[in-house]
Amino acid sequence: MLVLGVGGLVHDAAAAVLRDGELVAAIEEDKIRGALWPRNRGAWPQLAVQTCLELAGATPEQVDWVILAGPLGGAESRLHLQVKSQFPNGSLRVVDHHTAHAASAYYLSGFDQAAVLTLDRTGDTRCGALWQAEGNTLRLEEELYSPDSPAEFYGRWSGSSPAAAKTCAWQGAWR
Q: Which of 77, 115, 152, 160 is most buried as measured by Cβ atoms within 10 A of its Cβ?
């Protein structure tokens, strides 16, 4: 089975290919282009998809599944048509981005069971989730929602948040 995963359509768009459950290729669009590329929310990472398929030795017609990790940046209907035309034999599934984070961490880990923690800034207003994983099952235990984001707090404290300079005047005292 050949699975193409595409995520980060709001920012940091990337693609990955799994063949029979084994990761064979993964790359961000920006790494191929060599710089941040001008894009709209929901822009399809065509070069990342093409590169992953080439590295996997596969064609678009051989793709069994296309998995899109949301949020999709408002491009849901356009992406559905694009995926069906580009991958005529593939089925489409859209998954929540925290579920995608947790699945990629757990299923490729080699563990039979684990606690999985996902954290990010805001994405879809959910900024974190705690999962219990066992066998082929991920069970959501708890969620964090913006503005209670540990990643946003760290970003503002460390200065890596775009809003840090405007919203954290106290930050200079920590340097």
A: 152
Q: Which of 61, 131, 49 has its CA nearest to residue 96?
A: 131
C-alpha to C-alpha distance for 42 and 72, rounded to whole angstroms: 5
69 touches 6 (CB < 8 A): yes
pTM of the model: 0.73
Tens digit of pLDDT for each residue in 14-64? 999 999 988 999 999 888 887 665 565 667 899 999 999 999 999 999 999
CATH of the domain at 51: 3.30.420.40
β-pair partners for 128: 119, 144
pLDDT, tens digit, for every residue of 87-124? 999 999 988 888 888 988 898 899 999 999 988 766 56
Q: What angle do CA 142, 148, 149 make, to 5 degrees?
A: 90
C-alpha to C-alpha distance for 56 and 3, rounded to whole angstroms: 11
62 SS3 class: helix
Residues belonging to the active site: 11
Residue 76 forms part of a structural domain: yes
| Domain of residue 12, residue span | 1-95
